[in-house]
Design goal:
By secondary structure, this protein is mainly β. The chain contains no helices and 15 strands.
Length: 169
């Protein structure tokens, strides 16, 4: 809201660039107020937004910082199925995008997995990896990776099947 001797000129800026109504940006100005609406915001829309009101006597400005967080999402999902030999290992890998900090949680058949000798869990440089060692038939099942941040969450899954080794005499 503002007041002053008319005529008043109202301009909106992102950084040093003047904004105009169009596309994903809508500016509405009334007698004593002006509003900026941004639609379908993306992280690239983050920045300092300023409303500048002026007349022949001078100008005033008001600014606000906008930070757009991108929800956690899978750029590369898990392979839908994995076939693993009994006694071997399974390595499940997926790639995650989104605004940090992203928390990765792994599940097997809806039970959360914790780091152990059997399950090695890592998340570095956007790659989430679950390494299951010395697999046995009870390790068969659905493995789910959940990626979560302040802006949202996503899941992907893979069905792992462990096959026993046959001895032929």
């Amino acid at each position: 809201m503002f007041k002053g001797t008319t005529p008043l000129t109202v301009k909106w800026f992102k950084g040093d660039t003047e904004l105009v109504t169009g596309g994903a940006c809508y500016i509405m100005t009334e007698a004593l107020a002006s509003y900026l609406e941004l639609y379908a915001v993306k992280p690239t829309d983050s920045g300092k937004y300023t409303c500048k009101v002026s007349n022949v006597a001078g100008s005033v400005a008001c600014s606000a910082n906008l930070f757009v967080k991108e929800p956690a999402a899978f750029k590369e999902k898990l392979e839908p199925t994995h076939l693993v030999k009994k006694g071997g290992y399974a390595k499940l890998t997926c790639e995650v995008t989104g605004t940090p900090e992203i928390k990765i949680t792994w599940f097997k058949d809806d039970r959360e997995l914790k780091e152990s000798d059997k399950y090695r869990i890592s998340f570095t440089k956007s790659l989430a990896i679950l390494h299951v060692s010395e697999v046995d038939t009870e390790d068969s099942g659905e493995y789910i990776c959940e990626a979560k941040n302040d802006a949202g969450k996503d899941i992907c899954s893979s069905v792992v099947t462990v096959k026993g080794v046959c001895d032929i005499q």
